[in-house]
Structures are given as C-alpha cells and as structure tokens.
Amino acid sequence: MFGSIVSEDFYHAYSYTTTAISTVSNALLIYILLATHVVHVGPYRYLLLTFSIVDVIISFVHLALIPAIHMTKFGYIYWGYRFLRESTAVGVWAGLTWVLLFYQTFVLLAFHYVYRYVMLCSPEWLSWFRRRPWRNWLIVTFVADVIFVGGIFLACLFGFVPTDVSRKAFAPVLRKVYNIDLFASNAPGFLGIVYWTINEKGQKQWIPFSLFIIGCVCFLFFTTALIMLACIMQIFKELRASRFANLAPATKRMQKQLFRTLLWQTVIPCITSYTPLAMVFLVPLTGIPLGGFGTVFIMSTALFPMLDPYIVIFLISGYRKALIGLLANVIKPTLGQASHQVARPFTDTNSQITTMNRASYA
C-alpha cells in the first residue's frame, strides 16, 4: 500500500499558491468580461462569468478545507485537514460543500456545450429556448442543478457519511499512515465508502448499498461527460455543414474560437479532474490500494480553476486584445515615469555645468 505521498506542509503551500493564482487569474478574466464587449459572444459571456466566479469560490473552499483522500483495497476516505479537530457534523458538511461546488463545475461545463449546441445548431426540438431565452435558460439551469448536484448531494448524504462500519474500517489506516485518530473525543467528520468487508467466515462480502451508491455517483458523474460528447459531435457536424459556410467570415471565426475554447476547457479538466476522480471511484473496486495517491489526484483538481481564465483570454481574440490593451495602459505610464526620472538627473547635471561655466567666465 502506498502511504502518505504528499506532506501536509507541502500541501498547504501548494493550496496557497494555486488559490492565489486562481484568484488573480479569474479576477482578470472577470474584469475583461465586464469591460469588453466582443461581437457575437453575446449572453455567452455571462456563462463565462459564472464559471469564473465558481472557479474562485472552489479555490477558496479548497484552501479552507485542504481535502485529502486515501484509497484502500476496500474503499476510500475523504477528509479535510483543517477540520480534523471539529465535530463530526462540521467535518461532514465541510466536505459536502467542496464536493457540491466541485461537481457544479462539471454541470456548468456541460451547460456550456448545450448552450453552444442550441445557439449554433438551432435544433427544432429545442426551438422553445429562443422564445423567452432568459427565463427558459434559467429554468433549465435550475432543473439541471436540482437533478445533478442534488443527486450527488443525496448520494453523499446517504452513502458517504461516517458510520460505525466505515469508521472502524478506516481508523487503523489513518492512524498508521497519517497519525489521525478517527476515534478521538470529537469524532472527526469525513466522507468515506466501504465496498466490501470480511465476514465471520473470513470471506470477502460486498456491500450492495455501497455498490448502488457508487453506481449512482458514477452515473451522474459520467452523464455530464456524455452530454458534452453528444454536443461536440453535433457541433462538429454543424461546423462542416453548408449553411455554416454561408455565414459572415467574422461570425464563422468567432464561432470557431468559442468552440475551440470550449474544447480546451474540456481537455484540461479531463486530465486534471475527470480522470483522477474516476480512478478514485473505480480503482478500489479492483482491490488495488493506491493509498496517498488519492490526495495527489484531488490536488490536481486545483489546477483547472487557475488555468481556465487563460484559456478563455488567449483563445478568444477579442479578450486577448483587451488583455494586451490593459497591459499596455499599465506599462506605458510606468515607462514614461521611469524615463522622466532618468532624464531629470541629466537635466540637473547640465544645469549645474552651465552655472559653473558662467561662474568661471565671470
């Protein structure tokens, strides 16, 4: 079994760094989104704005919690380093807050694809979106959150909260590897799931309810991925259609930029979030104990919130130009002030030389 891969001190430093970069990066993107009007982006910028705000929030929650995961051969346990001295309820709700906010990013990403699909492909069966767009999109957003985020919340609430079975199963591991006492007087809260136990006959016995819960989590988790994949296929098809070729060059260029941006907003979280969390869910079912690598996996999820703003800024030409203009406005006064300060000593020196020459002639 792999033990603790990352030290707690290093993890704290890592979280401070990623949160700081995420905050500055997303603040820059939010400013550009609010201050710049890019033709053909339209209301889509409000989706980008929402995504950026959620990125900042999840970064701060990650820093406030310092979440860790340990993967055993019979399941995995999730806890927050900063909440180990709190009561069970506080620790559980802190963990649930991170889980719900983190999963919200996947729902929003899927929603981005649905929005681009509707706006670009204009399918007949979704034409009702255009009648009262603001109302209809808000309703769909609310319903999607209730179904997906609400489903994750219920699965965690019923299948991951501490029980006698899970506390007894994980206590020896955490005591040995991390010196964490799950039976301390405050009974630290955590989220954990045990897939199987050893029965009285010494045989492995699967826990049906745990398998049902992880099945629900995987279904909700991968459904968002399937929605994105379906939209990608339809959008690719539309981009190759003859009616797209008849659009104005500026419109075609912007639509391609938005779609390319969305693809990168999918590729990076697939590497830093989807794949690592899929391994957390599924690898323990194989009986392979990855131990502290679970914490490495959850640390990787902090990378996307700080990278996402740069994807939007650099791949959409209007926002890229806005950043260049912003930097130019900051740099020019600084350079002008520096050149003035450099020139002034020479002026003073020349003045002194002239005065000395006059004095010598006198």
From TrEMBL:
<keyword id="KW-0812">Transmembrane</keyword>
<keyword id="KW-1133">Transmembrane helix</keyword>
<protein>
    <submittedName>
        <fullName>Str-129 protein</fullName>
    </submittedName>
</protein>
<keyword id="KW-0472">Membrane</keyword>
<dbReference type="Pfam" id="PF10326">
    <property type="entry name" value="7TM_GPCR_Str"/>
</dbReference>
<dbReference type="InterPro" id="IPR017452">
    <property type="entry name" value="GPCR_Rhodpsn_7TM"/>
</dbReference>
<dbReference type="InterPro" id="IPR019428">
    <property type="entry name" value="7TM_GPCR_serpentine_rcpt_Str"/>
</dbReference>
<dbReference type="GO" id="GO:0016020">
    <property type="term" value="C:membrane"/>
</dbReference>
